[in-house]
Design brief:
eight-stranded mixed β-sheet; 314 residues; single chain; alpha/beta
């Protein structure tokens, strides 16, 4: 359970790394960093699909500069955590309940005993969806949530009835552990920069690819049919207009104006129904706002600083 450093992406100082076990016996790699001297408060950093702790080193540094401790993990089936299938490049879960267990294990075994309150959550994409599930299930771990391009709905035809029907049929006929149609084993961050849907920043994109080159075991390819079918079930819950109105904690949702992975329109519709919180759309940004160019990232951090209490002014 080590963290992988590259010349362009060193491990932030003070890291504590280890493994925790979920109630169903899955080993998860976690990392935590203490707050700067004299400061309190922790941000639980919750990754998206196919990501890994090393990809967020820059974000860890930025959060600690703001005075926070940071705690994070690799979801089951990705990064340095235990994989579900013999083909370790297949991103697979049977149900999103498994991710709920992962988050609860991190909170119970690492965040609450070892990190100072108050607690805030920062989640991206799939991680944002799992955090929404936690809030909807009345988990009161976090005072506030900040969600970056959360997976409330997929973009375009990926949310069509035909797409969902095809995935359901493939799963019912025994294809749940196969890659989704058109998917493959190439690690997401190893695909060419030109034409990528994640970020317009070539330097940050290359930095993630260099980490996979240095540690291929961290890479993950396309999701499986079962993962996508389970994701559809999770997103169906978010589509209920009563769901956002039921969320008790304040949330800041930041969408990406040029997102072709998740639906920014669905994010906005969801956000305006929330009882407490706000939403911002970063015009021009692609899906991975925190891995974008500084022009876009600056807008994200300005919204974060205005929303999360205790953030010092620079």
């Amino acid at each position: 359970m080590e963290l992988v450093a590259t010349p362009a992406n060193p491990v932030p100082e003070g890291a504590v790394v280890g493994e925790i076990k979920t109630p169903d016996g899955v080993g998860l790699r976690f990392a935590r960093w203490p707050p700067p001297p004299g400061r309190k408060g922790t941000v639980c950093l919750v990754q998206g699909r196919a990501e890994f702790i090393e990809k967020y080193f820059e974000v860890v540094v930025e959060l600690r500069r703001r005075g926070f401790a940071v705690v994070t993990m690799d979801w089951r089936g990705q990064g340095g955590s235990q994989r579900a299938l013999r083909d370790s490049r297949r991103g697979h879960v049977r149900r999103f309940d498994e991710y709920d267990r992962d988050l609860e294990t991190l909170v119970r075994d690492v965040m609450l005993p070892d990190c100072p309150p108050p607690y805030f959550a920062l989640g991206h994409s799939m991680g944002g969806a799992v955090l929404l599930r936690a809030a909807g299930n009345r988990r009161r771990w976090f005072d506030r949530y900040v969600l970056s391009a959360p997976m409330i709905a997929l973009h375009g035809r990926a949310m069509s009835g035909a797409a969902r029907g095809t995935v359901k049929a493939l799963r019912l006929t025994g294809g749940g552990s196969r890659f989704v149609p058109g998917g493959g084993a190439t690690a997401t961050t190893s695909l060419p920069f030109v034409g990528n849907e994640l970020t317009s920043d070539p330097v940050r994109y290359a930095r993630a690819a260099e980490t996979i080159d240095a540690a291929p075991q961290l890479g993950l390819g396309s999701p499986t049919v079962a993962w996508l079918d389970s994701a559809y079930a999770a997103m169906e819950r978010f589509a209920d207009p009563a769901f956002p109105r039921s969320l008790p904690q304040p949330m800041l949702i930041v969408g990406a104006g040029q997102d072709t992975i998740v639906s920014t329109a669905a994010i906005e519709q969801f956000a305006i129904r929330m009882r407490a919180g706000a939403h911002v759309v970063v015009a021009g940004a692609r899906h991975e706002i925190l891995m974008e160019r500084d022009f876009y990232r600056g807008q994200f951090w300005a919204a974060f600083d205005a929303f999360v209490p205790g953030t010092p002014l620079f």
